Task: inverse folding
């Protein structure tokens, strides 16, 4: 009798085709958990969960607000949460994350969905970045971390320090365990992850910069070294620049995997998954082997993996953008975030299919200074976003709309003038300066209701085109020229919703920008189930 041939499903990289910077991954039982950098965005420390390392969904966020609260009451682009790590110890989830301007924080939870403890400052100081803890076999605990030259004047080295097992205080002297200046060609050594396997201490760490670097593995019989090293993953002629900063994880079936990111500019840092094995010489083999560089590998475009039962709810893989929101719950879906610590007055939403943003008098003329932009990551491929906008109230100068936000920005929406309301498209032209003009008067008189449909189309190169139409119309009218989206500070560009009024304007409850459901569509790349 013929034997039936079974085939494994195949995934295609990137497995998370959007901006999930500096991913760290662990497995607890049959479930995987991923944490990523969130920088100034709030809520921070997004936690994703998966059954197969390919299809991911939200578990929640570990950080409801950034400490210190007063410092992050305004957007601090490029600051906040840098590369975190996640671990599971003594039945507790723990996330250790750095703020380059304040130090290393720790937060705990019994469930990845939360609630998470208030962040505790473990290592105070500027420039301490990319921490990762390890609990040793004897119960002692250590943290490895890198350094940011911009804050500390030090870089290209890794430090290990002993801490108490609860990660509450330092109990040993920090020691430099790897000095990148002593390694030929090594620069910008950072992002370390600390493990122990078969009596060896392992540090996986990238170098060379996020867009042009490679991945090292270091090993030693002593946590403080000396460490020997190899390059274990590099671009190697592929289109995957970097590859950079990730995590080794062992699956329930005994297979090994390495998650890392690729910097794609305006689309941010997308997540790739590489098969990994351990060679007879005890070193890891990641991706496809490179014959010219023994021990090193190049990223794979696709590979077989072990399928798992479909998860409940929408996933965040390439087959589903998972960006749309019907606003049918009192809070927006977890794909959204603010640009700073939020204030309760910003949002009024009851789950009735509309999102209402208060038109608070805080307009400085530059949308990059607004904390109350509700944004989310761009998908890594072309996408089209539509929503409706109604501008309530009659304060001249009030404005609201859809913005594509980065170091530069462009927006389309409605603005109040003494004559009524106009639909406009404008872009940043300097700090506090915007350029662009009116497209049409859509409401005559400052008290007249102004309502439009808005659309932004973003292609595979990150070029955006805005358009609008009146309710009930069938044809879209283009607004201005195309706009080349710009990446943010250490992040990709975002799509956001905003509403704001000029300084000194009344902040009454009737001054509101009301958005209808947001629909995001794009091409499907692959669907496993």
Result:
């Amino acid at each position: 009798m013929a034997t039936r041939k079974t085939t494994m499903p195949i995934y295609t990289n990137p497995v998370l085709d959007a901006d999930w910077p500096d991913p760290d991954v662990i497995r607890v039982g049959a479930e995987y958990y991923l944490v990523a950098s969130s920088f100034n965005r709030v809520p921070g420390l997004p936690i994703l969960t998966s059954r197969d390392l390919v299809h991911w969904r939200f578990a929640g966020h570990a950080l409801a607000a950034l400490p210190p609260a007063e410092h992050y009451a305004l957007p601090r682009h490029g600051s906040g949460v840098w590369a975190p790590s996640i671990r599971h110890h003594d039945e507790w989830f723990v996330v250790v994350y750095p703020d380059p301007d304040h130090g290393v924080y720790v937060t705990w939870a019994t469930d990845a969905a939360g609630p998470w403890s208030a962040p505790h400052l473990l290592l105070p100081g500027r420039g301490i970045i990319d921490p990762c803890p390890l609990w040793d076999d004897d119960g002692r605990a250590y943290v490895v971390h890198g350094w940011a030259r911009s804050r500390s004047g030090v870089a290209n080295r890794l430090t290990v320090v002993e801490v108490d097992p609860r990660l509450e205080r330092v109990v040993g002297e920090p020691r430099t365990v790897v000095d990148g200046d002593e390694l030929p060609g090594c620069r910008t050594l950072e992002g370390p992850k600390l493990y122990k396997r078969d009596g060896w201490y392992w540090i996986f760490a990238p170098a060379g910069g996020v867009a042009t670097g490679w991945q090292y593995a270091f090993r030693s019989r002593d946590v403080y070294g000396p460490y020997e090293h190899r390059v274990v993953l590099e671009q190697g002629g592929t289109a995957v620049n970097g590859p950079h900063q990730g995590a080794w994880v062992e699956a329930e079936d005994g297979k090994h995997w390495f998650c890392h990111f690729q910097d794609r500019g305006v689309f941010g840092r997308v997540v790739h998954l590489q098969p990994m094995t351990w060679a007879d010489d005890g070193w890891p083999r990641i991706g496809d082997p490179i014959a010219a560089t023994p021990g090193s590998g190049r990223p794979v475009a696709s590979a077989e993996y072990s399928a798992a039962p479909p998860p409940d709810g929408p996933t965040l893989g390439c087959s589903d953008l998972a960006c749309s929101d019907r606003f049918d719950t009192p809070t927006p879906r977890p794909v959204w975030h603010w640009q700073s610590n939020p204030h309760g007055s910003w949002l009024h939403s009851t789950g009735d299919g509309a999102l209402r943003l208060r038109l608070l008098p805080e307009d400085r003329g530059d949308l990059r200074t607004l904390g109350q932009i509700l944004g989310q990551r761009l998908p890594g491929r072309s996408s089209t976003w539509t929503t409706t906008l109604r501008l309530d109230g009659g304060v001249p100068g009030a404005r609201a709309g859809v913005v594509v936000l980065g170091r530069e920005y462009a927006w389309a929406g409605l603005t109040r003038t003494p004559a009524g309301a106009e639909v406009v498209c404008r872009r940043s032209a300097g700090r506090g300066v915007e350029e662009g003009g009116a497209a049409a008067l859509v409401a005559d008189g400052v008290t007249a209701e102004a309502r439009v449909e808005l659309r932004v189309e973003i292609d595979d190169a990150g070029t955006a085109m805005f358009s609008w139409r009146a309710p009930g119309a069938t044809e879209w009218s283009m607004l201005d020229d195309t706009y080349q989206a710009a990446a943010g500070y250490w992040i990709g560009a975002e799509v956001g919703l905003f509403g704001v009024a000029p300084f000194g304007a009344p902040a009454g409850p009737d001054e509101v920008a009301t958005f209808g459901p947001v629909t995001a569509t794009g091409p499907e790349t692959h669907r496993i189930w």
Remarks:
- Confidence is low (pLDDT under 50) at residues 317-321, 525-529.
- The domain at 347-521 is CATH 2.60.120.200 (Jelly Rolls).
